[in-house]
Amino acid sequence: MYESEHTLFMRELFAKQPQLADDQQRGRAIWWDRPAQNPEARRRIAAARIKQKAYPYQV
Fold it and tell me: Is 29 part of any domain?
C-alpha cells in the first residue's frame, strides 16, 4: 500500500518523539479549544456589547 513521503516522515517523527502528540494537544487547547461559559458570564458579555448603528459610516 502506498504511503507518501510526508506520511512516512510523520510516522517516523512521532515514533522517535512520542511526546509530540501531547504537545500538539496542548497547543490546540491554547489556541482553539475554548472553555464553556456559564449562563451568567454570557449575560454579562451580552449586556456589555454596544449596539452598532445600521450604517456606521453615515454622519
Answer: yes
Residues 10 and 16 sit within 8 Å (Cβ to Cβ): no
Average pLDDT over residues 27-47: 87
Quick check: 50 and 57 in contact, CB under 8 A?
A: no
Specify the number of domains making up the chain: 1
- Residue that has been written with the C-alpha cell 454596544 in this structure: 50
The boundaries of the domain holding residue 26 are: 5-48
Report the 10 Å Cβ neighbour count for 14. Answer: 13
pTM higher than the cut 0.85:
no
For residue 44, being part of any structural domain is answered with yes
